[in-house]
Write a structure and sequence with these properties.
The complex is a heterodimer. By secondary structure, chain A is mostly helical. Helices cover 67% and strands 0% of the residues of chain A. Chain B has one domain. Classes of the chains: A mainly alpha, B alpha+beta.
């Protein structure tokens, strides 16, 4: 378990860790006692995956994988919410600053909107804003996490996944470090 | 033919030259995985099978990967005694770094899992790397000793 400073990231990380913990505790009982799976699954799935030990173990392997994929998506979604809120606030501050201080022809041609234009919609846009601003290793880790998130979210079909899966601890900690860098 | 058309034709030729032959990539990936299984079954762990300590089974499975589409490959399951199973499962033929990933894990034990990554050396040669973490210092060439060490650790 790692220490996460951002409150939003911290709470989602704690929920995800708890889900993982509950799953792991339950899974332990399935080994050597396949019928324990029936206590975990909805009533309608009772005896569906618990007839053979191997089938039950396959089910728990896939359950763990699904929990991991969902954790990656949930952490990235929270991160997006945080960084986009910060981006919009910064955009608003800059816009007001220019409005207050800019002289014609800036204001006259209404061109200030073109200089500070609220156009970033995706995480990739935020990442390009951070190029050269935050530590390169941290930025590369963030890009890897974003690629992994896209790979999962887009049905594992249109982008190459990273060769190695970051742990939930590593993902949460990296995203938290990026938020801290942005706030600095 | 106008200049624009000629330039377009040149560009098309260049694009075709640069784009990988994904059909061949897919075939080579499936062959690489099969070859890895063959090495484990017929070479590295043959003695364990002879002594009845390991049993191998191949389970065909379908994969759908970026760029190369759908294909049939296989999962290899190693059955040990006492209801313990080790699994080699191809995850994807395409990875951002390296050139494909197989996961090696113990069934029902999520923390007993490791990535085995394919590294293409040249058109005819590749090697398999065991990756214990993202750090390249934790990446080792896969061989019998590494695999045995890992299983030994998992069975403790």
């Amino acid at each position: 378990m790692v220490t996460i400073n951002n409150e939003d990231l911290k709470s989602i990380y704690h929920y995800l860790l708890t889900i993982d913990n509950v799953i792991q505790k339950e899974i332990r009982h399935v080994k050597g006692n396949k019928s324990h799976l029936d206590k975990m699954v909805p009533e309608q799935l009772s005896k569906v995956y618990s007839t053979k030990e191997k089938t039950a173990l396959k089910f728990v392997d896939n359950l763990t994988r699904t929990a991991y994929d969902n954790a990656v998506i949930a952490l990235c979604a929270t991160f997006e919410r945080i960084v986009f809120a910060k981006y919009r606030t910064t955009y608003g501050t800059l816009k007001n600053l220019i409005k207050t201080n800019a002289h014609k022809p800036f204001d006259y041609f209404d061109s200030r909107e073109k200089f500070i234009y609220d156009s970033i919609q995706y995480l990739s846009g935020i990442i390009s804003l951070l190029e050269g601003i935050i530590d390169n290793d941290l930025l590369n880790k963030l890009k890897t996490i974003k690629d992994h998130r896209n790979y999962i979210a887009h049905g594992k079909r249109d982008s190459a996944p990273p060769a190695f899966d970051y742990s939930i601890d590593e993902i949460a900690s990296t995203l938290d470090d990026v938020v801290r860098e942005i706030e600095r | 033919m106008t200049l624009k058309e000629k330039l377009k034709k040149l560009k098309k030729q260049q694009d075709e030259k640069n784009s990988p032959d994904w059909d061949n990539y897919k075939k080579v990936w499936v062959d690489s995985v099969n070859h890895l299984y063959g090495t484990i079954v017929n070479k590295w762990f043959k003695e364990y099978e002879k002594e009845g300590l390991m049993e191998f089974s191949i389970i065909p499975t379908t994969r759908m990967d970026p760029y190369i589409g759908e294909y049939i490959t296989a999962i290899m399951e190693i059955t040990l005694t006492n209801n313990k199973y080790l699994v080699l499962e191809p995850i994807t033929a395409i990875t951002a770094d390296y050139d494909g990933k197989v996961e090696f894990y113990m069934r029902g034990n999520v923390y007993k899992k490791i990535s085995i990554l394919r590294k293409i050396i040249d058109e005819k040669k590749h090697e398999w790397i065991i990756a214990k973490s993202y750090d390249p210092k934790d990446h080792y060439k896969l061989d019998k000793k590494q695999l045995e060490k890992l299983i030994d650790k998992w069975l403790q």
